[in-house]
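cron nightly-structures :: item 1 of 1
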Amino acid sequence: MGKQIKNTWCFLREELVIPIMSIALGIVGILLMLFIEKVGMANDEKPVWFLLGTVMALTGCVMLGIIVGMISYGQSFNMMVTMGRTRKEFYIANFVSSLINHLLGMAVIFLFATLERGFGRLVYREVEYRAIEGFLFDFRVIIAYVLGMTVLRTVLGALYLRFGNKLMWVFWGFCMLVGVMTKGISKAIENKNRIMVWLTEVGKGFSNLANVLQVLIMLAVGAVFAVGAWLLTRKRAVTV
């Protein structure tokens, strides 16, 4: 199995270019934040540096990772099964390789965040960081990102393997639905809709749990979706 994982990772290692490409988007975010500060749109009393570059780089990493991962799932499936590997060997090797890639991608984002934070201190001696500063460097966020991205791309890859390009129409419909419902969701939040209140309470309840329990819940949810992806994959035929 170790050899299969190594071979699969060699096939997927090209995906490591995704976080590197996302850095370009992050640099744009840094320049935009610098512009905001310089033209006086931020707090004049004490400079506030929001890690906008890191947010944009992370967003690009997520979006590209999902799309590329979903498509490459079918490609690696066809390649490995055609070469005589079992579907179980493919699934395990692909999942582990994805975990490694997203862990390395998170390391790149961490490095970029550290550099952006240093740049902010270089521009302003006394600078206050907000929002993502305390959030990004939380170990629970690291686990959620690495595990969540791996499971999400595996599930979407299995669905794409099953339904093909029809899945893209589902994405399009979902995006349109979200766009239409955005205003309604905002109103529901303002009017304290029962469902929104319940979701808010669930979120607060989860955040108040012990760190270990939060991680265990994330692992359990990830395991459920991973099993679902395996069930979609185990009987699929090779398509060339």
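cron nightly-structures :: done
The chain has a mean pLDDT of 76.
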